[in-house]
Amino acid sequence: MKYRRQKDIVARKVAGENLLVPINGCAKKVYTLNNVGERLWEAIEEPKSQEELASSLVEHYKIAKETASKDVQAFLDDMLRMELVVPEG
Q1: Are 84 and 11 in contact (CB under 8 A)?
Q2: Whole-structure pTM over 0.85, yes or no?
């Protein structure tokens, strides 16, 4: 399965913070991403699988695949719960 960004979410960097702002309707919440979250958010501009996302973290941060997989799973769980990411196929 691949994941992509939800439409109508704007990413901005403000005062050193990585923010996601829903713009569909009344935006009542703003979400903050850490550096890893920002990297993953950028990566899912085009649909990516969990494995593809983990591989990108391994390559960029030189971390163990198991650690990267756990980080990606946590990111996707949060993003799905907040309806900021949608699964495809």
Answers
A1: no
A2: yes
Contact 58, 39 (CB under 8 A): no
Residue 28's SS3 state is coil
What is the chain written as a DSSP string? -EEEEPTTEEEEEETTEEEEEE-SS-----EEE-HHHHHHHHHTTS-EEHHHHHHHHHHHH---HHHHHHHHHHHHHHHHHTTSEEEE-
Over residues 19-78, the pLDDT tens digits come to 998 887 655 688 999 999 999 999 999 999 999 999 999 999 999 999 999 999 999 999
What is the predicted pLDDT for the residue at 83?
A: 87
Between CA 15 and CA 18 the distance in angstroms is 9
